[in-house]
Amino acid sequence: MNAEIREDIKFAVVGAGNGGCAMAAHLALMGFKVNLYNRSEYRLKDIKKTGGIHLEGAVSGFGRLDKITTDIEEAIRDVDIIMITTPATGHRNIAKMAAPFLQEDQIIVLNPGRTGGALEFKNIIKQTGVRKEVIISEAQTFIYACRIVGPARVKIFSIKDRVDVAAIPAYKTRKVVEKLSCAYPQFHAAESVLETSLNNIGAIFHPAPTLLNSARIETTEGDFQYYIDGISPAVASVIEKIDRERIKVANALKVKAVSALEWLKFTYGSEGNSLYEAIQNTKAYKGLKAPDTVHVRYIFEDVPESLVPIASFGRIAGVPTPVIDSVIEMASAMHNINYWEKGRTAEKLGLKGLSVDQIHQLVLEGEVVIPQRGIAEGEAQGAEGDVVA
Amino acid sequence: MNAEIREDIKFAVVGAGNGGCAMAAHLALMGFKVNLYNRSEYRLKDIKKTGGIHLEGAVSGFGRLDKITTDIEEAIRDVDIIMITTPATGHRNIAKMAAPFLQEDQIIVLNPGRTGGALEFKNIIKQTGVRKEVIISEAQTFIYACRIVGPARVKIFSIKDRVDVAAIPAYKTRKVVEKLSCAYPQFHAAESVLETSLNNIGAIFHPAPTLLNSARIETTEGDFQYYIDGISPAVASVIEKIDRERIKVANALKVKAVSALEWLKFTYGSEGNSLYEAIQNTKAYKGLKAPDTVHVRYIFEDVPESLVPIASFGRIAGVPTPVIDSVIEMASAMHNINYWEKGRTAEKLGLKGLSVDQIHQLVLEGEVVIPQRGIAEGEAQGAEGDVVA
């Protein structure tokens, strides 16, 4: 990495939660100019007082920030890269707010996109009528494991070695990886946003085990090991089916998906013939407690922004997802929220009426050529048509 | 009650589990002739040795049995009343086995029928081609709370004050109640088997809380209070939706259904503004432990024989049951069993293609007049037609 390049690249970090604070401070420590945005003032109060954020753990030092603001226009003005670190439930609103102020060539990275994040973001920008040439991309996971531990103070437990990222259209991913590399050499190009979106492992490990341990979470305030005690053989049997449905959907969309079992093996080196065994053999899960409430991102984020879009991709590809659907329905009943309506449906992702091939065209090239109507039945559909996305 | 009548009435009790043993012994103690049947020999071994069953608890004494047998023909020959006390999952098979040996005017009582028990039983008898005039009826719940406590020894904890029963056709219910009254004055006539079937409260309290506590059941072997700890606000929120779906289905079938909240109030005097509160205020639930495995009747009986038929009635009546469906789907994933296929669907209940009015006709009169085909569209359908059930 190179100090001259650093001075040239400006970041905005959108969202001042655990992750956003860690990222903003770390980028500042690396020497970049960083603006930090948060919707509400209260998360910024202490940071404004000190002018930045103290880091401890895997990285330590004080990251002095440039602008600390609740004004999205001020936050993103003249920056090169906009790192969005809010829960995926915030992506829609940020897209709407930011759209009028986006500038040519800005790069937007959703950290992470969950499932369909970049597609949805792009669709909202399009609906607002903004025609700026920005690059929208999504990471497959969040690069830091970290937590706010005091006023303007964050602990970074670990930084991942590798994070996949994809832009839409996919041929722009190279540019995103290149631009990010000065700060994060860990980012690697995925084939497309379908790959980052359909390898969303949180969709498997978060909602169903939380539901199937809901009473225990509520009566013990999460005082049990989330994975080791919470994923018993019966629960593992359910999440195995969910994982299988996800992989079938991915395959139908011609996307390589890694199974949860494979993921545990290559991420943690966990051995096991079944998902249950592999989880029990994952040392990183020992002692890891459950959330203390069922009103938690594991449901309110992962159901609408991970499972609903996977099920919606399934609908498009003609792959039934009955177990995923049952989790969505039961979470809706538990939270008194219609997650089907709230979540990322094909319509919200801008995929309504598209075929699998057209979706590929969209994620690879950024637009779809819709054959013109009125062609006689049986006649081969030509390449002429309207560009819609 | 009258000793002369008693000598006239002979019972068969089919199923030598906790309930069947209590019922057989109690009936014998009351002075009736009782045969006890079980499919497998091992449950009968100790009872054959002693010639009967010892009762303790609410009733005590030794009930000497007439025949103790694994031969269904021997068990039901020349009896007046056949009390079936197996899990509902056994009803199909018993109907098939017993059909060839049924005699005119015998009364069959499913204790209880769960949902659709009598309809299914009748449908199977019909399919076997047996044309004997028997009365098939179902109780809404089981009259005893009891447990086998030793070899040929049962403890009766309590006997219910009132149990609703209905025959199919409903005009024969009076005869069932009259015949049973010499032994059980507690049996009362329900309007029809739709009423007994759709007021199946086990459908509400058994499958969903078991699923939503599955990991806790497996890791603690049920060492927590099933209702008090297992039905937290989040779980109560789910079962409230399930109950609401059941009531909507019942209403669409013109059946009065009691809500779970009302049921807790009149059964246990439990007060509460919500199902959660009423359950927490139910003294009978204090200390009641969970099952020690998820491979339990609460799922393997109540899903196929309670929730699947309620959902199937919903399909007929045009009432969606998304939360019930999600429980069926998730239980199927957990047990690796397709409960939709295994359970009591409209087809198995003999209701396929029937309208709500025709179902009423079937349960009230025992047969349905199907208007003849080929009537010109728009023409009023007459009463002429084929009798099909």
UniProtKB/TrEMBL annotation, chains A, B:
Occurrences of domain Opine dehydrogenase (ranges): 190-335
Domain of life: Bacteria
This enzyme's EC code(s): 1.5.1.28
Domain Ketopantoate reductase N-terminal, residue spans: 12-110
Broad enzyme group: oxidoreductase
Keyword vocabulary terms for this entry: Oxidoreductase
Pfam families documented for this protein: ApbA, Octopine_DH
Gene Ontology terms, MF aspect: opine dehydrogenase activity
InterPro entries: 6-PGluconate_DH-like_C_sf (IPR008927), 6PGD_dom2 (IPR013328), KPR_N (IPR013332), NAD(P)-bd_dom_sf (IPR036291), Opine/Lysopine_DH (IPR051729), Opine_DH (IPR003421)
Name the record gives this protein: Opine dehydrogenase
Organism: Koleobacter methoxysyntrophicus
Gene transcribed to yield this protein: odh_1
